[in-house]
Design a protein that fits this description.
Structural class: alpha+beta
Strand order of the largest sheet: 2-1-3-15-16
Radius of gyration: 34 Å
Distance between the termini: 86 Å
Shape: elongated
Largest sheet: 5 strands, mixed
Low-confidence stretches: 1-50, 694-756
Number of strands: 22
Oligomer: single chain
């Protein structure tokens, strides 16, 4: 083995080999330039290209990945997301100092030579031999630009990046040929512009604009001489010359650049000396990448927008195509998020539920008639620490939510009422509605096989004083369980299935609601707040259901050119007649006026809604609306392990939590702030004849003692169905792990009674 010299340099054998290698490379380049037809290099054995001629004629230059900016409906910035933090700028918007500094230190003969600087190559070879090492490189700026194009095309694939940067003669030959093409096609100024936009400056900053922002909180066009020299010096080794981590080394490197600028005549000796004495003057702006940095508590909404982009075919036929477009970035995404509504949601959640509480809360606001999501938030912030979570409790599992959603309790009952009205049942329909009754022996389903009560299971109302007969309006106000089960037995489950299908009501995992009485009346199945808010918005818009939408428009910038991208549109369709919707609005107005939702009622505005609380008080809901805004609020444990009895939430003690007294006030305050200054339209209410006063008039009209007394349909921990219903044997009562900010969610029962309750 050849020995190294005592000074650590190359041995004479190694020096000769290096000289030979560079000479071969130089000769090959000359041959390739002068005689392309005879440019064969015989390098295939080295795992590189076969010949200069056989390389593709044109360099493939992918669009530079840039940051994407997500905006609210008013144009305010929510967050920036990027694979690489870069903002492409024209050369005219880059400081002349910066242009001169990078040329001086990286390729001082840039404007004199072609794609390859043979003089510089020979100078570097001579200097390296003399120094017994590699003290000077010979790549031109054009060659460096080409190498950066290869790296950019490799993206984040480590194997491709390694291939793009491997130190082989074959790669250098490839780089050189494309450099020749680039010189011919682009010219010096465009090459310099492209280089300054593509190169890496450390600290996650790609391109000079991002670097100027990162280190000095300024723009590339405003860089001073010392600042430009510092950035130019970083390029050779961003980790070694990082001024944030080592200001002394970075200062020395900056001064080397200044000295070189003086040597080539870009600045005077006096200017260089003055700049060398200047402090670094860093004003570092920390990188803010991703939805975790979103303002206004909009991190969960931001992630929802990202998931919409990555999953909707409008942005590409395959997930790979969509992901590539997202990572390429350069997008300006204007969303539907309304700043006033979002602030109101976050303020209300913060006021009523603490992030350190045993339970969490989530709220979503949707605009009736358009499907626009105007607000979305939750009490536990987005993150990975204590009392934080990355799961969005407002949406389905496919969009980053819980596995199943959360049982909705009696907020499901309006769907039954709407189905019955569509079937022709009168608005003052009466049923015996006893305090306790067995489930019907059979209930018709959408198939030929009816559901049967094989276990002779029973259900109850909350209080023994709740005995029928009841008409629909009073039954809705008091949320009488037996009434709605009798209504379901009357009309069958298929009309309810058809209604929920039209209202986009699916479980949190995307499956249809099972045809089981507890799911079809008492809300034992897990749904998401966004699903509920969007469904109730159809009542507000007089029967028109509109699919939820989060993106208004997208503009993409590629190579300085802006173009608009197609975005998903809300699809609106009629879910029920106007008469049915108006009747439901009348029924639910009574809930907030004198029923279980009194504590949620808005003052000075037409409003309607429904409470819901599930077995063992593991979930509490309020879903409501005005003619121009709908919203859903859920409170509970993500793992479904916390029973909300003898509990303090948001500093307020509750012996028992009800849909009216905890999610109700959150909804009220969120809606009040969101609607402040907005018009207050009225519902088209219908006249529902009042029945003779047979409902005992004994105080039950007060919204169950003012606090939604009795949201469950069971006795304590036993639930309203201790025996499993037929078709309801899944393990919805079992949590499969995690904490409130955890990784897995319960909330699915499919008919075993866990979750069915009254308002």
């Amino acid at each position: 083995m050849p020995k190294k010299r005592s000074g650590g340099g190359l041995s004479s054998t190694q020096q000769a080999a290096k000289f030979l290698g560079v000479s071969v490379l130089a000769g090959a380049v000359l041959a390739g330039i002068a005689l392309p037809a005879v440019g064969a290099l015989g390098l295939a054995a080295k795992g590189s290209v076969e010949s200069f001629d056989e390389l593709p004629a044109n360099l493939k230059t992918p669009p530079l990945s840039q940051r994407t900016t997500i905006l609210d409906a008013d144009g305010g910035q929510i967050a920036t997301v990027y694979s690489r933090d870069r903002t492409v700028v024209d050369l005219k918007n880059i400081s002349p100092y910066m242009q001169k500094a990078i040329v001086a230190i990286e390729d001082s003969r840039f404007y004199e030579h072609g794609a390859v600087d043979l003089k510089g190559m020979l100078r570097a070879l001579n200097k390296n031999v003399q120094s017994s090492g590699v003290s000077e490189g010979a790549s031109t700026l054009t060659q460096q630009y080409v190498k950066n194009v290869f790296v950019e095309e490799a993206g984040d694939d480590p194997t491709k990046v390694a291939q793009a940067t491997q130190q082989t003669i074959g790669r250098k030959i490839k780089e050189l040929k494309y450099a020749i093409q680039v010189e011919e096609e682009l010219g010096k100024k465009k090459i310099l512009e492209n280089y300054l936009n593509i190169t890496f400056f450390g600290e996650q900053a790609y391109g000079v604009e991002a670097a100027a922002q990162r280190y000095f909180s300024t723009h590339a066009k405003d860089l001073t001489l010392p600042q430009a020299a510092l950035l130019a010096g970083i390029v050779q080794s961003p980790s070694v010359y990082d001024p944030v981590k080592d200001d002394v080394t970075a200062t020395n490197r900056r001064n080397v650049v200044l000295k070189r600028m003086a040597e080539v005549g870009d600045i005077t000796e006096a200017e260089a000396a003055k700049a060398q004495k200047a402090p670094l003057g860093l004003k570092v702006k920390q990188p803010k990448n991703g939805c975790i940095t979103a303002v206004k508590g909009a991190s969960f909404f931001c992630k929802y927008v990202e998931r919409v982009f990555l999953s909707d075919p409008v942005f590409g036929k395959t997930k790979e195509v969509r992901a590539k477009l997202w990572n390429q970035g350069g997008l300006t995404i204007r969303t539907t998020l309304e700043p006033q509504a979002q602030k109101s949601v976050q303020d209300s959640l913060k006021d009523h539920v603490y992030k350190s509480d045993k339970v969490a809360a989530a709220a979503t606001l949707v605009e009736p008639g358009t499907g626009k999501i105007l607000g979305m938030g939750q009490s536990k912030p987005y993150g990975y620490g204590k009392n934080e979570t990355e799961y969005n409790y407002s949406v389905n599992s496919s969009m980053g939510g819980s596995n199943y959603g959360f049982p909705t309790g009696s907020t499901f009952k309006p769907f039954v009422a709407a189905a019955a009205l569509e079937e022709g049942r009168p608005a003052n329909q009466s049923y015996p509605a006893p305090y306790e009754m067995p489930y019907p022996e059979t209930v018709q389903t959408c198939s030929s096989k009816p559901w049967t009560n094989q276990g002779n299971d029973k259900l109850e109302n909350e209080s023994e004083s709740e005995k029928g007969p009841y008409q629909l309006k009073k039954a809705m106000e008091l949320s009488v369980n037996t009434y709605f089960v009798q209504m379901l037995a009357d009309i069958g489950m298929c009309p309810v299935v058809k209604m929920t299908d039209k209202l986009g009501v699916v479980q949190g995992n995307g499956d249809k609601v099972p045809e089981v009485p507890s799911s079809m009346t008492l809300g034992s199945t897990g749904l998401s707040p966004l699903t509920m808010a969007t469904a109730y918005a159809a009542f507000a818009s007089r029967g028109m259901y509109c699919t939820p939408v989060a993106i208004e428009s997208i503009t993409q910038t590629v190579g300085g050119t802006k173009k608009s991208l197609e975005v998903p549109k809300s699809t609106c369709s009629r879910a029920m007649s106007e008469k049915t919707a108006d009747t439901v609005n009348t029924l639910l107005s009574g809930v907030t006026d004198s029923g279980t939702g009194k504590q949620a009622g808005l003052s000075g505005r037409a409003n309607a809604g429904k409470t819901g609380t599930t077995d063992s008080r593991k979930n509490a809901w309020f879903v409501g609306y005005t003619p121009n805004l709908a919203g859903a609020v859920w409170v509970g444990s993500a793992t479904q392990k916390v029973e909300m009895t003898d509990i303090t939430i948001g500093g307020v003690y509750h012996s028992q939590v009800y849909g009216g007294d905890t999610p109700g006030p959150i909804w009220r305050d969120a809606m009040t702030g969101a609607l402040e200054g907005k018009e207050a339209p009225s519902f088209n209410l219908v006249n529902i004849p009042n029945p003779p006063d047979k409902d005992r008039g004994d105080g039950n009209d007060d919204g169950d003692n003012g606090d939604d007394n009795g949201d469950t349909a069971g006795n304590g921990d036993d639930g309203f169905l201790t025996g499993l219903l037929t078709n309801g044997t899944t393990n919805g009562g079992n949590s499969t792990g995690g904490t409130d900010g955890g990784t897995f969610f319960q909330g699915q029962s499919n008919g075993n009674g866990n979750g069915g309750g009254r308002g």
